[in-house]
Design brief:
Blueprint (H helix, E strand, L loop, with lengths): L1 H41 L3 E9 L14 E2 L6 H9 L8 E9 L4 E12 L5 E11 L4 E5 L10 E12 L4 E10 L5 E11 L3 E11 L16
Length: 225
């Protein structure tokens, strides 16, 4: 009887031992997954875009930080040369795309694609550019005029920006603009996250009307002493 009892106790121990070893491992593994997901959420960075009208090279833009980057697409170079050979001060209404990041992470591998369309929908053109890195909460600008369409009435039909955060998370920002029946511009913004390196899942969507503005040079209105 004693031998049978000892064998039974050993059998019980061998049955319990794997579970006793496995539970801490599972707990540790789940904790690591939880910490990794929390870190991705903490460093998830979003993008916001605006279209502005300002003077050439943003010279009348108030509170512009020193060192702000003005990204020059290849399609803009011909127009930039034309302005410099003319009178740059006379180009007071240039169109720019402002891109601002919100979050704790730098973003890398930034790919920007902008599609514009004339108001009569007869012409459309694209601007594509890549930026290696954008700092956290940085604001950059990109001219969207071209030599052969300056002065024409147009609107930005679509903006797509792909990028990656420092935790390796890949995101896609998309802004789609369309004209409704009363010729108002309707703007829909999307934010997507790439899952399993295969497909994007929408995590945010908002819709509203387009707003445009110009920046005033308030120094001209100050009284001279």
């Amino acid at each position: 009887m004693e031998i049978i009892t000892e064998l039974t106790m050993l059998d019980i121990v061998w049955r319990i031992l794997p579970a006793a070893l496995l539970v801490p491992f599972i707990t540790f593994f789940l904790a690591r997954i939880g910490n990794y997901n929390d870190r991705k959420l903490e460093y998830r960075t979003f993008i916001e875009t605006d279209e502005i009208v300002a003077s050439y090279k943003l010279k009348n833009l108030p509170n512009l930080k020193n060192g702000t980057r003005l990204i020059i697409p290849e399609e803009y170079i011909e127009f930039d040369n034309y302005i410099n050979n003319s009178d740059p001060a006379s180009f007071s209404k240039c169109n720019y795309l402002k891109i601002k990041t919100f979050g704790k992470s730098i973003i890398t591998g930034v790919w920007i694609s902008v599609t514009m369309k004339s108001n009569d929908s007869k012409k459309s053109w694209d601007l594509d550019i890549s930026i290696p890195i954008i700092d956290e909460n940085e604001e950059i600008f990109m001219p969207i005029d071209r030599f052969d369409n300056y002065g024409e009435d147009f609107y930005t039909e679509e903006i797509k920006i792909k990028y990656q955060t420092q935790t390796g998370e890949k995101l896609l920002y998309k802004c789609i603009q369309s004209r409704n029946k009363v010729n108002e511009t309707v703007v829909t913004n999307y934010h997507y996250i790439k899952k399993y390196h295969l497909f994007y899942i929408n995590i945010n969507k908002n819709k509203g009307s387009n707003i445009s503005w110009i920046f005033l040079n308030t120094d001209k209105d100050k009284p001279k002493e």
